[in-house]
Amino acid sequence: MSPGFRDHPKLPRFRSGSKRDRKIDIPGVNRDERSLRILLVDDAPVNLAVCSRLLGRMGCQVDPATSGEYALAMFRDGCPQARYDLVLLDMNMPGMNGEETSRAIREMEAEMPPEHAYRERPVPILLLISANPGEESPENRQAGINGFLYKPLQPEVVREALAKWVPLHV
What domains can be seen in the chain, in order of their start residue? Predict the structure, then answer.
């Protein structure tokens, strides 16, 4: 009987020092003070896993949500502490899409007391999309969306987006 693939030793899942596991520094963000807290919303479990791992390499604490409705509940629960530094929303989700979820988050921020941190510095919201929409639409601006990240996510692009948007909020 010839050896099959089952006869080979299992490879370690996480290799120490591998390029996939190296920490990625974010310019302008001091990770020693505290880790960044990101609300990540995507209905695809694979996208949540891949993006969570990438953000984890950047020293971020990720709260994953699988729907816009669930994300709103998490945002509402976290509002007293103003705990999110960034919200990443998938554009195409069943139920509430990214624009509707963004609009609802902005409405929640507007209803907060004037001294709340989100009133002074609204949380940046970036849409995760798979195709380049061209110019930013008026609907996106009205929904309170600050920018876009294109799938599949590239580490350098995510790093630049965090460096751009998080220091404005922290």
Answer: 32-169 (3.40.50.2300)
Q: How deeply is 163 buried, as exposed, middle or buried, from its count of CB atoms within 10 A (0-12, 13-18, 19+)?
A: middle
Both structure tokens of 126: 């970036």
- What's the gap between Cα 61 and its chain centre? 10
What Cα–Cα distance (Å) separates residue 133 from each residue in 50, 112, 149?
Answer: 23, 32, 11
The alpha-helical segments, DSSP class H, found in the chain are 45-57, 68-78, 98-110, 117-120, 138-142, 155-169
Q: Token pair for residue 149?
A: 């990240």
Say if residue 3's pLDDT is above 60: no
Between 98 and 6, where is the model more confident? 98
Least confident of 7-11, 61-65, 76-80, 150-154: 7-11
Token readout for 59 is 């020293």
Q: Interhelix angle for 98-110 vs 68-78, to 10°? A: 20
Enumerate residues 6+ apart whose C-beta is below 8 A from 49. none
Distance from chain centroid for Cα 139: 21
What's the full length of the chain, in residues?
A: 170
